[in-house]
């Protein structure tokens, strides 16, 4: 009887061990218990980021799509950025419409043509387009109750913008300012800051400007735009380089400006400009060039007002 029990026990022993082993490995494979959730934090939730509205005037030219592509590649990486693209044109162009549809960020596509009489060298550019952007912004927000969080920034289509710039401007309370690279006849232009206040301007061009700053050097809170409904860019009496001062004069004072970019010591935006096409030559200029350089051929003729203009090609 004893030996029968023993033999049964020995027979069952390996199976028992296998079962124990299986149970053991199973429990070791079991996923770890989820960590206990931290208790819900008391107090108010973090407010959403204020949106940034970037108003970009743009006009048709060979480099337009390249410029807009560079801009979209930057803007797409900025949280809560709304791009207001304003074409200098009588109607929306197909190129920009297609571009906007595929830009991959919130866009508003407006258009307004610059009157012909203002399309002259020496006159300010993009006045009507920036005003159209301002009008759109005011119309969209005027019926909503304050406070309306948001920041407005004029982003010309040929400049170069760092991502850090948008972090800086996001906290604008009224009007914020910072340096701009490659402008004002210097490597950069900047507000001079003392004890956290703007006290002057470092610039190589017209230091007498009330605000010696480029369009790319400031941002304005949406609240300031809404509470100054008449502040616009003006054509009358405005000279190039004075548009910024004329506009800022309507909404703020130098003492009120908020310096950004480490007290205006860091350049986070550059006034880059795309090289112009090779100039066209007059017929006489072309003949002269050809006499000097055999191998110069005309490739295109363009009827100017009184003369035939020629483009050149060097075939070796
Ligand atoms: C400088 C300033 O940086 C501009 O903000 C200012 O508008 C301009 O001077 C001025 O003289 O009014 P700059 O590089 O000389 O800029 O000007 P552009 O970059 O040629 O033009 C500024 C913006 O206006 C660009 O976004 C451009 O696409 C647009 N633009 C220019 C038009 O919409 N229509 C035009 O006929 C020319
Ligand atoms: Mn420019």
Word description of this protein:
- It is a single chain.
- The protein is 31% helix and 22% strand.
- The chain has 316 residues and is an alpha/beta fold.
- The strands form 4 sheets. Strands 3-2-1-4-10-6-11 form a 7-stranded mixed sheet, with helices on both faces. A 3-stranded antiparallel sheet has the order 7-8-9, with no helix packed on it. It has a 3-stranded antiparallel sheet with strand order 13-15-14, with helices on one face.
- Strand 8 (188-194) and strand 9 (197-202) form a beta hairpin.
- The longest helix is centred in the first third of the chain and has 28 residues, at 2-29.
- It is globular, with a radius of gyration of 32 Å.
- Bound molecules: uridine-5'-diphosphate-glucuronic acid and manganese (II) ion (MN).
- The site of uridine-5'-diphosphate-glucuronic acid has 20 residues, from strand 1.
